[in-house]
Amino acid sequence: MARILSISGSPQTPSRTDGVLAYVGRRLTGRGHEVEVLSLRDLPPGPLLSADLSDPTIAAAVARVVDADAVVIGSPVYKAAYSGLLKTFLDLLPQFALSGKVLLPVVTGGSPAHVLAVDYALRPVLASMNPAHVGAGWFVAASQVRLYPDGGVLLDPLAARPLDDVVDAFTTTIELLGDAHRGATAPGRPRTGPAEIVVSDVHLTDPAAAPLLADLVVEYGTRYGRDATAEFDRFPAADFAAPDGSFVLLRRNGETVAGGAIRRYDGQTAEVKRVWTAPRFRRQGLARRVLVELERRAADLGYRRLYLTTGPRQPEAAGLYLAAGYTPLYDRTADPETVGKHPFAKALEVPAAPVVLAERAS
To answer: For 142, what's the count of Cα atoms within 13 Å in the CB-facing half-sphere?
Structure first.
Protein backbone atom coordinates (compact mmCIF):
# COMPACT_ATOMS: atom_id res chain seq x y z
CA MET A 1 0.00 0.00 0.00
CA ALA A 2 1.34 3.41 -0.99
CA ARG A 3 0.76 6.75 0.70
CA ILE A 4 -0.58 9.05 -2.00
CA LEU A 5 -1.06 12.78 -1.61
CA SER A 6 -3.68 14.43 -3.82
CA ILE A 7 -2.92 18.14 -4.29
CA SER A 8 -5.60 20.48 -5.57
CA GLY A 9 -4.38 23.74 -7.08
CA SER A 10 -7.87 25.09 -7.64
CA PRO A 11 -8.61 28.42 -5.92
CA GLN A 12 -12.36 27.90 -6.22
CA THR A 13 -15.00 25.91 -4.38
CA PRO A 14 -16.91 24.01 -5.57
CA SER A 15 -14.33 22.99 -8.12
CA ARG A 16 -14.38 20.64 -11.08
CA THR A 17 -10.70 19.99 -10.43
CA ASP A 18 -11.60 18.81 -6.92
CA GLY A 19 -14.35 16.64 -8.40
CA VAL A 20 -11.94 14.92 -10.78
CA LEU A 21 -9.39 14.47 -8.01
CA ALA A 22 -12.09 12.93 -5.80
CA TYR A 23 -12.88 10.47 -8.60
CA VAL A 24 -9.20 9.57 -8.96
CA GLY A 25 -8.76 9.32 -5.20
CA ARG A 26 -11.64 6.89 -4.77
CA ARG A 27 -10.20 4.67 -7.49
CA LEU A 28 -6.82 4.69 -5.80
CA THR A 29 -8.40 3.86 -2.45
CA GLY A 30 -10.22 1.00 -4.15
CA ARG A 31 -6.83 -0.35 -5.22
CA GLY A 32 -5.79 -0.47 -1.56
CA HIS A 33 -3.74 2.73 -1.34
CA GLU A 34 -3.96 5.42 1.35
CA VAL A 35 -4.97 8.77 -0.11
CA GLU A 36 -4.74 12.15 1.62
CA VAL A 37 -5.95 15.47 0.22
CA LEU A 38 -4.12 18.79 0.32
CA SER A 39 -6.18 21.75 -0.88
CA LEU A 40 -3.80 24.64 -1.51
CA ARG A 41 -6.53 27.28 -1.19
CA ASP A 42 -6.79 26.37 2.51
CA LEU A 43 -3.18 27.39 3.20
CA PRO A 44 -2.58 30.82 4.80
CA PRO A 45 -2.09 33.24 1.88
CA GLY A 46 0.54 35.46 3.51
CA PRO A 47 3.07 32.75 4.38
CA LEU A 48 2.30 30.95 1.10
CA LEU A 49 3.04 34.00 -1.07
CA SER A 50 6.16 34.88 0.91
CA ALA A 51 7.39 31.25 0.94
CA ASP A 52 7.58 31.36 4.73
CA LEU A 53 8.64 27.80 5.54
CA SER A 54 8.73 28.65 9.24
CA ASP A 55 4.95 28.95 9.27
CA PRO A 56 3.66 25.72 10.89
CA THR A 57 0.84 25.21 8.36
CA ILE A 58 3.14 25.68 5.37
CA ALA A 59 5.80 23.47 6.96
CA ALA A 60 3.22 20.73 7.57
CA ALA A 61 2.04 20.90 3.96
CA VAL A 62 5.61 20.57 2.66
CA ALA A 63 6.22 17.65 5.03
CA ARG A 64 3.16 15.86 3.64
CA VAL A 65 4.62 16.15 0.15
CA VAL A 66 8.01 14.85 1.26
CA ASP A 67 6.49 11.92 3.18
CA ALA A 68 4.23 10.73 0.35
CA ASP A 69 5.18 7.81 -1.88
CA ALA A 70 3.27 9.24 -4.83
CA VAL A 71 1.49 12.50 -5.65
CA VAL A 72 -1.53 13.35 -7.78
CA ILE A 73 -1.42 17.00 -8.82
CA GLY A 74 -4.57 18.68 -10.10
CA SER A 75 -5.15 22.16 -11.42
CA PRO A 76 -7.52 24.17 -13.58
CA VAL A 77 -6.02 25.82 -16.65
CA TYR A 78 -5.81 29.61 -16.70
CA LYS A 79 -4.15 31.50 -19.57
CA ALA A 80 -2.91 28.22 -21.09
CA ALA A 81 -1.08 27.26 -17.88
CA TYR A 82 -1.76 25.68 -14.51
CA SER A 83 -3.02 27.87 -11.68
CA GLY A 84 -0.91 30.52 -9.98
CA LEU A 85 -1.83 28.92 -6.65
CA LEU A 86 -0.15 25.67 -7.68
CA LYS A 87 2.82 27.54 -9.15
CA THR A 88 3.32 29.38 -5.87
CA PHE A 89 3.29 26.14 -3.88
CA LEU A 90 5.64 24.30 -6.25
CA ASP A 91 8.05 27.25 -6.06
CA LEU A 92 8.37 27.02 -2.28
CA LEU A 93 9.01 23.27 -2.23
CA PRO A 94 12.61 22.15 -1.71
CA GLN A 95 14.28 21.29 -5.03
CA PHE A 96 14.09 17.54 -4.44
CA ALA A 97 10.83 17.34 -2.49
CA LEU A 98 9.42 15.09 -5.24
CA SER A 99 12.56 12.98 -5.57
CA GLY A 100 11.86 9.28 -6.10
CA LYS A 101 8.10 9.74 -6.25
CA VAL A 102 5.55 8.72 -8.88
CA LEU A 103 3.54 11.71 -10.08
CA LEU A 104 0.22 11.98 -11.90
CA PRO A 105 -0.74 15.41 -13.31
CA VAL A 106 -4.44 16.05 -14.01
CA VAL A 107 -5.81 19.34 -15.33
CA THR A 108 -9.26 20.67 -16.13
CA GLY A 109 -10.20 23.45 -18.48
CA GLY A 110 -13.02 25.08 -20.35
CA SER A 111 -11.70 24.36 -23.83
CA PRO A 112 -9.91 21.46 -25.57
CA ALA A 113 -7.40 24.10 -26.67
CA HIS A 114 -5.95 23.83 -23.15
CA VAL A 115 -5.10 20.15 -23.47
CA LEU A 116 -1.40 20.91 -24.05
CA ALA A 117 -1.13 22.53 -20.61
CA VAL A 118 -0.26 19.12 -19.15
CA ASP A 119 2.71 18.38 -21.41
CA TYR A 120 4.03 21.87 -22.09
CA ALA A 121 3.39 23.69 -18.82
CA LEU A 122 3.08 21.30 -15.87
CA ARG A 123 5.15 18.23 -16.78
CA PRO A 124 8.45 20.08 -17.37
CA VAL A 125 8.25 21.71 -13.93
CA LEU A 126 7.49 18.40 -12.24
CA ALA A 127 10.24 16.60 -14.16
CA SER A 128 12.78 19.18 -12.94
CA MET A 129 12.19 18.07 -9.35
CA ASN A 130 13.72 14.61 -9.82
CA PRO A 131 10.68 12.32 -9.54
CA ALA A 132 11.02 8.61 -10.24
CA HIS A 133 8.28 8.87 -12.86
CA VAL A 134 5.82 11.43 -14.19
CA GLY A 135 2.70 9.72 -15.54
CA ALA A 136 1.10 10.62 -18.83
CA GLY A 137 -1.50 12.73 -17.04
CA TRP A 138 -4.83 13.75 -18.47
CA PHE A 139 -6.91 16.76 -19.43
CA VAL A 140 -10.63 16.77 -18.55
CA ALA A 141 -12.90 19.34 -20.14
CA ALA A 142 -15.13 21.23 -17.71
CA SER A 143 -18.16 20.24 -19.78
CA GLN A 144 -17.40 16.58 -18.96
CA VAL A 145 -17.70 17.10 -15.19
CA ARG A 146 -21.02 17.56 -13.40
CA LEU A 147 -20.98 18.53 -9.75
CA TYR A 148 -23.87 18.01 -7.31
CA PRO A 149 -24.56 19.99 -4.12
CA ASP A 150 -24.12 16.85 -1.99
CA GLY A 151 -20.56 16.36 -3.23
CA GLY A 152 -21.39 13.82 -5.92
CA VAL A 153 -19.45 13.88 -9.17
CA LEU A 154 -20.55 12.51 -12.53
CA LEU A 155 -17.94 12.24 -15.27
CA ASP A 156 -18.88 11.87 -18.90
CA PRO A 157 -17.82 8.38 -20.10
CA LEU A 158 -15.64 10.10 -22.71
CA ALA A 159 -13.58 11.46 -19.79
CA ALA A 160 -13.96 8.58 -17.32
CA ARG A 161 -12.68 5.80 -19.56
CA PRO A 162 -9.29 7.34 -20.46
CA LEU A 163 -8.92 8.67 -16.92
CA ASP A 164 -9.39 5.12 -15.62
CA ASP A 165 -6.61 3.98 -17.96
CA VAL A 166 -4.29 6.73 -16.72
CA VAL A 167 -5.00 5.83 -13.08
CA ASP A 168 -4.38 2.13 -13.82
CA ALA A 169 -0.99 2.99 -15.35
CA PHE A 170 -0.18 5.22 -12.36
CA THR A 171 -0.96 2.49 -9.81
CA THR A 172 0.91 -0.12 -11.83
CA THR A 173 4.01 2.09 -11.80
CA ILE A 174 3.69 2.61 -8.05
CA GLU A 175 3.42 -1.13 -7.48
CA LEU A 176 6.33 -1.95 -9.80
CA LEU A 177 8.60 0.56 -8.10
CA GLY A 178 7.52 -0.68 -4.68
CA ASP A 179 8.39 -4.23 -5.67
CA ALA A 180 11.73 -3.07 -7.07
CA HIS A 181 12.59 -1.31 -3.81
CA ARG A 182 11.75 -4.49 -1.91
CA GLY A 183 13.87 -6.57 -4.29
CA ALA A 184 10.83 -8.54 -5.41
CA THR A 185 9.87 -9.60 -8.87
CA ALA A 186 6.64 -7.91 -9.81
CA PRO A 187 3.97 -10.20 -11.20
CA GLY A 188 2.94 -9.40 -14.75
CA ARG A 189 -0.50 -8.00 -15.41
CA PRO A 190 -3.01 -10.57 -16.58
CA ARG A 191 -3.25 -10.77 -20.33
CA THR A 192 -6.14 -8.77 -21.68
CA GLY A 193 -6.08 -9.94 -25.26
CA PRO A 194 -8.84 -11.98 -26.92
CA ALA A 195 -9.88 -14.89 -24.76
CA GLU A 196 -12.99 -16.85 -23.98
CA ILE A 197 -15.27 -15.45 -21.30
CA VAL A 198 -15.79 -17.90 -18.46
CA VAL A 199 -19.11 -17.60 -16.63
CA SER A 200 -19.34 -18.94 -13.09
CA ASP A 201 -21.71 -18.89 -10.14
CA VAL A 202 -19.93 -17.93 -6.92
CA HIS A 203 -20.73 -16.98 -3.36
CA LEU A 204 -20.72 -13.29 -2.48
CA THR A 205 -17.70 -13.86 -0.23
CA ASP A 206 -15.64 -15.50 -2.99
CA PRO A 207 -12.32 -13.58 -3.39
CA ALA A 208 -13.00 -13.37 -7.13
CA ALA A 209 -15.99 -11.12 -6.37
CA ALA A 210 -13.88 -8.64 -4.38
CA PRO A 211 -12.89 -6.41 -7.35
CA LEU A 212 -16.55 -6.08 -8.33
CA LEU A 213 -17.72 -5.11 -4.86
CA ALA A 214 -14.80 -2.73 -4.23
CA ASP A 215 -15.30 -0.92 -7.52
CA LEU A 216 -19.03 -0.56 -6.94
CA VAL A 217 -18.32 1.21 -3.64
CA VAL A 218 -15.97 3.57 -5.47
CA GLU A 219 -18.45 4.19 -8.30
CA TYR A 220 -21.42 4.91 -6.04
CA GLY A 221 -19.34 6.89 -3.57
CA THR A 222 -18.07 9.16 -6.33
CA ARG A 223 -21.41 9.72 -8.03
CA TYR A 224 -23.45 10.23 -4.88
CA GLY A 225 -20.88 11.85 -2.60
CA ARG A 226 -21.17 9.42 0.27
CA ASP A 227 -19.75 6.18 1.66
CA ALA A 228 -21.57 3.47 -0.27
CA THR A 229 -20.32 0.56 1.84
CA ALA A 230 -23.48 0.44 3.95
CA GLU A 231 -25.65 0.21 0.82
CA PHE A 232 -23.92 -3.01 -0.23
CA ASP A 233 -24.05 -4.48 3.25
CA ARG A 234 -27.83 -4.13 3.50
CA PHE A 235 -28.49 -7.64 2.22
CA PRO A 236 -27.00 -10.83 3.67
CA ALA A 237 -24.81 -12.92 1.40
CA ALA A 238 -27.38 -15.73 1.55
CA ASP A 239 -29.81 -13.57 -0.46
CA PHE A 240 -27.60 -14.03 -3.50
CA ALA A 241 -27.35 -17.81 -3.34
CA ALA A 242 -29.68 -20.68 -4.22
CA PRO A 243 -32.51 -21.39 -3.79
CA ASP A 244 -33.63 -17.73 -3.96
CA GLY A 245 -30.74 -15.96 -5.70
CA SER A 246 -27.56 -16.19 -7.71
CA PHE A 247 -24.27 -14.32 -8.04
CA VAL A 248 -22.61 -14.48 -11.46
CA LEU A 249 -19.09 -13.51 -12.48
CA LEU A 250 -17.56 -13.21 -15.93
CA ARG A 251 -13.82 -13.82 -16.09
CA ARG A 252 -11.27 -13.50 -18.86
CA ASN A 253 -7.76 -14.92 -18.45
CA GLY A 254 -8.61 -15.42 -14.77
CA GLU A 255 -9.45 -11.75 -14.25
CA THR A 256 -12.91 -10.72 -13.05
CA VAL A 257 -14.26 -8.42 -15.75
CA ALA A 258 -18.01 -8.24 -15.03
CA GLY A 259 -20.72 -9.60 -12.77
CA GLY A 260 -24.11 -9.19 -11.21
CA ALA A 261 -26.63 -10.84 -8.92
CA ILE A 262 -30.30 -11.57 -8.32
CA ARG A 263 -32.22 -11.99 -5.08
CA ARG A 264 -35.83 -12.77 -4.16
CA TYR A 265 -38.13 -9.75 -4.40
CA ASP A 266 -41.42 -11.63 -4.10
CA GLY A 267 -42.76 -15.05 -5.03
CA GLN A 268 -42.78 -14.31 -8.75
CA THR A 269 -40.09 -11.64 -8.99
CA ALA A 270 -36.30 -11.58 -8.73
CA GLU A 271 -34.47 -8.31 -8.11
CA VAL A 272 -31.33 -7.56 -10.12
CA LYS A 273 -28.48 -6.10 -8.05
CA ARG A 274 -24.86 -5.09 -8.48
CA VAL A 275 -24.45 -5.28 -12.24
CA TRP A 276 -20.90 -4.12 -12.92
CA THR A 277 -18.20 -4.11 -15.58
CA ALA A 278 -14.54 -3.36 -14.87
CA PRO A 279 -13.68 0.11 -16.22
CA ARG A 280 -11.07 -1.26 -18.65
CA PHE A 281 -13.57 -3.66 -20.23
CA ARG A 282 -16.58 -1.43 -20.76
CA ARG A 283 -18.31 -0.98 -24.12
CA GLN A 284 -17.69 -4.62 -25.03
CA GLY A 285 -21.19 -5.94 -24.36
CA LEU A 286 -20.23 -7.58 -21.06
CA ALA A 287 -22.99 -5.94 -18.98
CA ARG A 288 -25.57 -7.17 -21.48
CA ARG A 289 -24.06 -10.64 -21.19
CA VAL A 290 -24.42 -10.44 -17.40
CA LEU A 291 -28.12 -9.59 -17.76
CA VAL A 292 -28.67 -12.53 -20.10
CA GLU A 293 -27.05 -14.88 -17.57
CA LEU A 294 -29.11 -13.44 -14.70
CA GLU A 295 -32.34 -13.71 -16.66
CA ARG A 296 -31.59 -17.36 -17.43
CA ARG A 297 -30.91 -18.15 -13.79
CA ALA A 298 -34.02 -16.30 -12.64
CA ALA A 299 -36.16 -18.40 -14.98
CA ASP A 300 -34.47 -21.59 -13.76
CA LEU A 301 -35.28 -20.60 -10.16
CA GLY A 302 -38.95 -20.22 -11.07
CA TYR A 303 -39.23 -16.44 -11.26
CA ARG A 304 -41.45 -14.90 -13.93
CA ARG A 305 -40.42 -11.27 -13.65
CA LEU A 306 -37.32 -9.20 -13.01
CA TYR A 307 -37.25 -5.91 -11.14
CA LEU A 308 -34.39 -3.48 -10.56
CA THR A 309 -33.62 0.10 -9.66
CA THR A 310 -30.77 2.34 -10.71
CA GLY A 311 -29.82 5.80 -9.53
CA PRO A 312 -30.45 9.17 -11.19
CA ARG A 313 -26.73 9.66 -11.82
CA GLN A 314 -26.24 6.44 -13.77
CA PRO A 315 -27.43 7.25 -17.29
CA GLU A 316 -25.30 4.44 -18.75
CA ALA A 317 -27.15 1.90 -16.60
CA ALA A 318 -30.55 3.27 -17.60
CA GLY A 319 -29.52 3.04 -21.26
CA LEU A 320 -28.41 -0.56 -20.78
CA TYR A 321 -31.71 -1.64 -19.26
CA LEU A 322 -33.78 0.12 -21.90
CA ALA A 323 -31.75 -1.54 -24.66
CA ALA A 324 -32.19 -4.92 -22.95
CA GLY A 325 -35.98 -4.67 -23.03
CA TYR A 326 -36.69 -3.51 -19.50
CA THR A 327 -39.72 -1.26 -19.03
CA PRO A 328 -39.16 1.99 -17.09
CA LEU A 329 -41.62 2.40 -14.21
CA TYR A 330 -41.03 6.14 -13.83
CA ASP A 331 -41.56 9.35 -15.75
CA ARG A 332 -38.61 9.57 -18.14
CA THR A 333 -39.42 13.20 -18.95
CA ALA A 334 -38.94 14.31 -15.34
CA ASP A 335 -35.70 15.61 -13.84
CA PRO A 336 -33.71 12.49 -12.80
CA GLU A 337 -32.79 14.04 -9.45
CA THR A 338 -36.44 14.62 -8.52
CA VAL A 339 -37.39 11.08 -9.57
CA GLY A 340 -34.77 9.51 -7.32
CA LYS A 341 -34.40 5.79 -7.87
CA HIS A 342 -35.31 4.69 -11.39
CA PRO A 343 -37.25 1.38 -11.32
CA PHE A 344 -37.41 -1.03 -14.26
CA ALA A 345 -39.17 -4.37 -14.80
CA LYS A 346 -39.13 -7.14 -17.38
CA ALA A 347 -41.30 -10.22 -17.85
CA LEU A 348 -39.37 -13.44 -18.33
CA GLU A 349 -40.25 -15.86 -21.05
CA VAL A 350 -41.91 -18.92 -19.56
CA PRO A 351 -40.74 -22.12 -21.24
CA ALA A 352 -43.58 -23.75 -23.11
CA ALA A 353 -44.86 -26.93 -21.53
CA PRO A 354 -43.97 -30.02 -23.58
CA VAL A 355 -46.77 -31.36 -25.75
CA VAL A 356 -47.71 -34.92 -24.86
CA LEU A 357 -49.32 -36.80 -27.74
CA ALA A 358 -51.87 -39.41 -26.78
CA GLU A 359 -51.19 -42.87 -28.15
CA ARG A 360 -53.59 -44.00 -30.83
CA ALA A 361 -55.49 -47.15 -30.04
CA SER A 362 -54.40 -50.06 -32.21
So the answer is: 13
The pLDDT value recorded for residue 190 is 45
In angstroms, the CA 145 to CA 18 distance is: 10
Return d(Cα 112, Cα 13) in angstroms, integer.
Answer: 22
Whether omega for the bond prior to residue 14 falls within 30 degrees of 0, making it cis, is yes
User: What is the value of pTM for the model shown?
Assistant: 0.72
DSSP letter for each residue of 208-277: GGHHHHHHHHHHHHHHHTS--HHHHTSS-GGGGSTTT-EEEEEEETTEEEEEEEEEEEETTEEEEEEEEE
Helix (H, G, I), strand (E, B) or coil at 2: coil
Domains delineated in the chain: 3-182 (3.40.50.360), 198-347 (3.40.630.30)
Dist. CA 100–CA 84, nearest whole Å: 25
Q: Give the tens place of pLDDT for each residue, 53-78.
A: 999 999 999 999 999 999 999 999 98
DSSP 284: S
